Every structure is written in C-alpha cells, then in structure tokens.
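Bit of a strange request maybe. I'm writing a small parser for structure token strings and I need a real example to test against, not something I typed by hand. Could someone generate the tokens for this chain?
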Amino acid sequence: MELSRCEWVRQCSNVCLLGQPGTGKTHISIGLGLSACREGIKTKFFTAASLVTQLEEAQKQYTLDRFLKRLDKIDLLIVDELGYLSFSRAGAELLFQVFADRYERRSLLITSNLAFSDWGQIFQGERMTAALLDRLTHHCSIFEMNGESYRFKESIKQSKSDQSMKAKAK
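Reply from user aminoacidic:
Good idea to test on real output. This should exercise your parser:
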C-alpha cells in the first residue's frame, strides 16, 4: 500500500518486481501505474520488447533523440517482462541508455522473470549489466515474487471443478 502513495516516484527511486511467471508482477505494476496517474504523475507502460522495438525504429528513422526526450518527460516508466525475449546488441544498448539516463532523475518500475544474476543475458555483457544494476538498485525497492503461478492454480481449480461436475452428472 505504501508504494501506491507514490512517494518513491517523487523521490526518483525505482521498483523491481522479480519472480516466476504468474506471480502478479504485471498486475501490481499496472496497479502502481494507475495509482501514479491518479496522483498526477506522468506514467508510461511498455513491455521491454515493445520499448526496444520502438527505440530501434526511432534510431532507424533518425528520431531517437526526439523519442528519448519524450521518455525523459515521463516521471514513471514501467517496463514489463524484461527477460522474456532477447534483444539485439544494439537494442540492449539502447535500453541500457534509457535506464541509465533516468538514474536519480526519474523512476523506473521493472518486472522480470530473471534474477539480477541472469541479467547479463539481456544486456549481453557483465560490464554493462553491472553498471546498470549499480544505478538501478541504488535507490530501489526490490520484491522477489516467488510461488506458484496464479493462473496455474486457477486452471487446476477449474479442472477439479469440471471433474466434479462430470462426476455428479453421471
């Protein structure tokens, strides 16, 4: 609940939600984004793949500076599903630039299915990853969201309910 008050955004801090699929990371990030909007905080939500695609496209169109300036006006940038899809080296470098430029100036909320120790595969190198994590985690609330997938639990519950209904019908 404290995060929904958005003081962390006003202080230019970050939030990282890490854990297995189905544990509520995206759900919470959307909720925190909505809270920020209600507080009048400029907020934008991207999947990591979508953001990298848009960065690469802007670079190809020679509009990268303009796109980066638009991102810089956003107080809270939410980047969902970091680590689900891999990026080109150029895409990883552009994403690094966005993240690094926000350090102590704007807030990031990142969701990832990967532990920080595995982020080297996203950013294709230990040095870039170490530099990024150093900045990102300096002022950051980190939540490890482990446990069974909510969707999986619901499908098991539904399956048991369906089996029970079939048994009663016989």
